[in-house]
Design a protein that fits this description.
The protein is of the alpha+beta class. The chain has a single domain, classed as STM4215-like (2-Layer Sandwich), CATH 3.30.2000.30. It has two helices and seven strands, in the order H-E-E-E-H-E-E-E-E. It has helices at 6-15, 71-88; strands at 29-31, 41-54, 57-68, 92-94, 97-104, 109-113, 119-131. Strands 1, 2, 3, 4, 5, 6 and 7 form a seven-stranded mixed beta sheet that branches. The radius of gyration is 14 Å and the shape is globular.
Length: 132
């Protein structure tokens, strides 16, 4: 049975020291809500997905949002997240759920500059996962 939302498991993958990203939940890595501070954050948003192929096989989508004071720094971070998840996490089991594939559904997109002149980027992922 699959218990966690995808954002929770992906958070754990990104926090893992092997990612080299240095992200910490509650400090600069958040789930499903974007705080006004700090300036530089990563937010993971559960964003629907495709219907189940069969029982215990899910295909959810996840949106990654990066906000940063510096355009190039924000772009580089979301690019690093993209390649870390897309290339290195396929076939991994996390919190009792097997991540068969994590695929990019889009390229990195620039969303906007917010009222505090921080740059926001997004990336959409499609996940194929099953309960162990």
């Amino acid at each position: 049975m699959i218990i966690n939302p995808p954002s929770e498991d992906i958070k754990d993958m990104l926090e893992d020291s092997s990612s080299g990203l240095g992200l910490v939940a509650g400090t600069d890595l958040f789930l499903n809500t974007q705080p006004s501070e700090p300036n530089n954050v990563v937010v993971l948003v559960d964003s629907g997905g495709m219907g189940q192929l069969q029982y215990n096989m899910e295909r959810p989508n996840l949106q990654v949002i990066v906000r940063n004071n510096v355009y190039l720094t924000g772009y580089t971070l979301i690019k690093d997240i993209k390649y870390y998840l897309h290339e290195k996490r396929n076939g991994e089991t996390r919190n009792g759920t097997r991540y068969i594939s994590i695929l990019c559904r889009s390229e990195i997109g620039f969303l906007r500059t917010d009222r505090k002149n921080r740059f926001e980027f997004s990336l959409n992922l499609q996940i194929h996962r099953s309960g162990d």
